[in-house]
Amino acid sequence: MTNVAIGSDHRGTAVAQAIECQLRMDGFNVQLLGDTSGVPTDYPDIAWKVSQEIVAKRADRGILICGTGIGMAIAANKVAGIRAALALDELSAQLSRSHNDANVLCLSADLLGQTLVKRIVAVWMRTNYDAGRHARRLAKITRIEMGEDPKG
Fold first, then answer.
1. By residue range, what is the domain housing residue 139?
2. Summary mean pLDDT of the chain
3. Most C-beta atoms within 10 A of its C-beta, which of 2, 74, 125, 140?
C-alpha cells in the first residue's frame, strides 16, 4: 500500500484536508503533517517535514499545498532525493510522474478549484514512472543534486 505524506501552509489547509479524505477513500495510507488549524505557517517548514518523510522512506509520495504551490516546490526541491513538481492540470501531473518520477506533487490552494485538485491528485497517484529514455535524464538530475556535471 502506498504511503502519502500531505502538508500545507495555512492557505492550503482546506485543500489538504479534502485530499486526505479523497486518498483515504481510495485506500491509501495518509499522514497529514503540520498544523491544520489555519494558523499562519511558513511553507518551508512544511516542505521540509514532508520531504523528510520521503527521504526516510516513511512515505512513498508527498503532496504539498500553499497559495500558489511555487514556494513549496522550491523549498522541497532543495532536499536531496526530492523531485517536486507543480501541477496546474491533469497533463502536467501525469507527465511529472511518467517522465520525471516526481515524488512530491505541489498544488495551488488559491488558483485551482477543489474539483480540479481532486482530478490532478487522482491522475498523479495512478501514474507510474515510464523509465526508458527518461532514466538517463533522471540520472543527470541526481548528478546535479550531488554537485556534479550532469554530462558525467
1. 3-145
2. 94
3. 125
Total number of domains in the chain = 1
Active site residues: 66, 99
- Partners of 64 in beta bridges: 7, 106
* Confidence class for position 138, pLDDT limits 50, 70, 90: confident
In the prediction, which pLDDT does 38 show?
77
CATH of the domain at 115: 3.40.1400.10
SS3 state of residue 129: coil
Whether 152 is in a domain gets the answer: no
CA 98, CA 80: separation in Å to the nearest integer? 20
Give the list of residues 6+ apart from residue 140 with CB closer than 8 angstroms, or none: 150, 151, 152
Model confidence band, residue 39 (pLDDT cutoffs 50, 70, 90): confident
Summarised one tens digit per residue, pLDDT across range 79-105 is 999 999 999 999 999 999 999 999 999
- Indicate if the alpha-carbon torsion angle 116, 122, 125, 127 is positive or negative: negative
Q: What does the block give as the cell for 110?
A: 488559491
The bridge status of strand 84-86 relative to strand 61-66 is unpaired
In a domain, 67, yes or no: yes
